[in-house]
Structure formats: structure tokens, C-alpha cells
Write a structure and sequence with these properties.
This protein is an alpha+beta fold and 254 residues long. 25% of the residues lie in helices and 31% in strands. The chain has 3 domains: 40-102, Trypsin Inhibitor V, Chain A (2-Layer Sandwich); 109-175, Trypsin Inhibitor V, Chain A (2-Layer Sandwich), CATH 3.30.10.20; 181-253, Trypsin Inhibitor V, Chain A (2-Layer Sandwich), CATH 3.30.10.20. It contains 4 helices and 16 strands. The strands form 6 sheets. The chain has a 4-stranded mixed beta sheet, covered by helices on one side. The longest helix has 33 residues, at 2-34.
Amino acid sequence: MRSNFRILFYVLFFAVLISMLVFKLTDLLLKKYTLHDNVILVPSLVGLSMSETQDTLEYYNLTSYIIDSAAYNPNYNRGAILSHQPKAGSEVKPGRKIYLTTNPLKVQYIPFPNLVNKSLRQAIILLENNAFRVGDLKYIDYYARDVIRFSKVGDNIINHNDSLPKFKVVDLYLGNGHDQNIMVPDLVGLEFGQVKKKLNNNSLNLGDHNLEFLSMDTVIDTLKTIIYKQEPQFSQKVPLGSYVSIWLKDSIHE
């Protein structure tokens, strides 16, 4: 009887010991596979050429994916990186994809349409049809609300038939109709590609947008990401031309 008890004791002892060893080995392998203790700070890539960007990311054991070409920015060389996600200083794991927005390589110049005294909706349509992009809405004192008084690129007023690079971002200066406030629309559930036009049509601007990357190794179409939070909140009254910040997530993981 005592012999059987001793055998059972040793069997249980070795079973527990083997289980602990298996657990430790599995934990070690998982940490190694997921690079649990290995964190990289994303370097700043803004202004770098594509070849410089590739060399930099390779040095940091990161990869890249171009998600978009922005409006031409004369402050940077053609093809240079204008922005990236995650941003510089973010903590990521080795092998992480860095999503790049670049300056266009080719620039086509086109005449600027006549927007003066057009309604905001007409101006947006004209800009889009002429391959320009709506920047910020700025409100000035004028009796007619949402009527274009003038347009600017940076600090320069743009006139009808001025030659501008295709996809240039244009700020619109509009009459306030002597109104002060506007109600914030509900943005939650909208795709990112829809939100700026909705805000502009409600006399508001798109503010900061924070993208939650829920899938590290999946290419995310930013325009298809979904808004799950906004600030200011829906139905809150704010001044004309205010900025509304949004938080986005990958629609695949809703």
C-alpha cells in the first residue's frame, strides 16, 4: 500500500513539474513570437524622400505602406513624406507597418473657378469639380450667411482664373449672416470619407482625427474607418466655423 502511495506521489510530482516546464516554455515562446519586451519608437519621416524613408524604416525594423498622395505642398520636395501613422514617437513592435502620405510626384496647374458670392454648397461643388480641395471655413461679418466673400491659399487671396496646382487646398471666407452659433451634427457611425463634407455643409470644420489601429498587420483604408466618438458632442451649440474632433476605428473590427 505504501509502495503504491509513493508511486502515485512521484507520478503527481513529475506531472506538476512537467506542466510547469511546459507553461514556462510556452510563455517564453509566446513572448519571443510577439516580441513582448521589444518596443520601437517611430522615427519622424516627414520631409524624407521615399528611398530615405525605406532606409530609415529598415534600420528600425519597420515596414511601410503608402495610403495616399496629398495636395501638393511646395514646402516639401515632390514625393517627400508629408505625414505618417503612427506618428513620430509612438511605441510600436518590430515589423509594424507605417502608413505614409506623400507629396505628389507630378503637379498639374489649372485655373481657379469663380466662387465670389456663390453659396457654400455651390463653392464646394465647383472646387471638387475642378480638382481642388476644401480647406477651412472662416467666417467674417457679412449680412448673407454661407456666401463666399473671398478665398485664400495660405495668406494669399486667390482670384478667378489664377493658376493653382491640382488638388490644392483652398480656405473659404464666408459671411456669417450675423449669426453666432450652429448646432453640431451627429457624426458617430459615419465613414471618415463622409465626415468633412457633412461638417462643411453645417458651417463647421474637421478638427483632429485620431485613428485607432486595431489590426497591426492589415492595410486599413482610412476613408472607410468609422467614427465612434466626437467632440463637441451631437446637438451642442458652437460658433460658426468651429472645429470638431473625431475618433475612428477600423470598420472590420466593429
